[in-house]
Amino acid sequence: MAVRNSLEPPVQGNHLTVSAPAPAPTALGRAAEEAAAEALLGHRFTRIELLREALTHRSAAPAHPGGRGAGAKGAGSNERLEFVGDRVLGLMIAEWLAERYAREQEGQLGPRLAVLVSQPVLADIAEQIGLPAVLAVAEGESKAGVRRRATVLADAVEAAIGALYMDGGIEAARGFVRRAWGAAMTGQAAPPKDAKTALQEWAQGRGHPLPDYLVASREGPPHAPVFVISVTIAGRTGTGTAGTKRAAETEAATDLLARLK
To answer: In terms of C-beta distances under 8 Å and separation of at least 24 residues, what long-range contacts does 64-70 make, across chains too?
Structure first.
């Protein structure tokens, strides 16, 4: 479990409109949950509403009781902070890789980054730090196992990073990333192969047809689409979600490789 850091100064000028999730049954219960979440992230929040939003799945958002209701789609959930955290995480990992592998060029650093920010790695880190226990999910969704889904956990980790950045600045985000991603970073010896290439080689080496990527769904406006892509080999299926087809295919290949191994 991460150790709590001293309070970091909030970023001036970076303001994100947030909506607090539905209140806990008691103030004491909510305070205890928030303290536990702060301990997991190693940061004491000045703007506690950022932490609450980061840990609120869309099913538990006040505008969507049970995942439905009036209001903007996803309002009050951690989706906006996940959008911020995704960009901050990419920067933090890129910075770290450039420091650690000073002799490598983009062709080697790119695959390393792709693995370290992939959904399976994010979900695994969420499990390791105990994030599922503090994630707010609607009762019905919780019973369905949503709290343990890789996509939900990966989004929650990115939302937490977004909240850390908005509350404590780049140093708060960097401190968490370097603690939580330590094992994943040091575990990379040689640059990993691109996930799609590795999956193709796995299939060819075992006499299977080449991977066939299928667009399961496409949502969102034209300027910000969200693709869900699946790929199947030997009866096992991997899925990926991203803002471009190529990125979603890479996520799907990474997910399937993890399942096949």
So the answer is: 65/22, 65/138, 66/138, 66/140, 67/138, 67/141
Domain holding 145, by residue range, is 27-186
d(C-alpha 191, C-alpha 194), whole Å: 9
> What one-letter code names the amino acid at 227?
F
Answer whether residue 148 is part of any domain. Answer: yes
Catalytic residue (one of 8, 155, 158, 167): 158
* Partners of residue 231 on adjacent β-strands: 213, 238
Locus of tokens 């977004």: 162
Q: Which of 8, 34, 38, 86 is catalytic?
A: 86
97 lies in some domain: yes
What is the per-residue pLDDT across 144-195, written as a single tens digit (0 to 9) for each? 777 788 889 999 999 999 999 999 999 999 999 999 999 999 887 767 777 8
Over its C-alpha atoms, the chain yields an Rg (Å, rounded) of 19
Residue among 163, 180, 136 nearest 80 (CA): 163
Task: State the Cα torsion 129-251-171-105 to the nearest 10°.
Answer: 130
71-124 pLDDT per residue, tens: 444 557 899 999 999 999 999 999 999 999 999 998 888 888 988 998 889 999
Edge-to-edge strand ranges of the sheet holding 236-242: 213-219, 226-233, 236-242
124 is catalytic: no
Residue in the block written with tokens 């309070």: 7
Q: Do 75 and 112 have their domain in common? A: yes
Sequence-distant (6+) residues with CB within 8 A of 204 are: 210
End residue of a domain, out of 153, 186, 219: 186
**How far apart are the C-alpha atoms of 81 and 163, rounded to whole Å?**
6
158 is catalytic: yes
In whole angstroms, give the CA distance from residue 248 to residue 168.
31
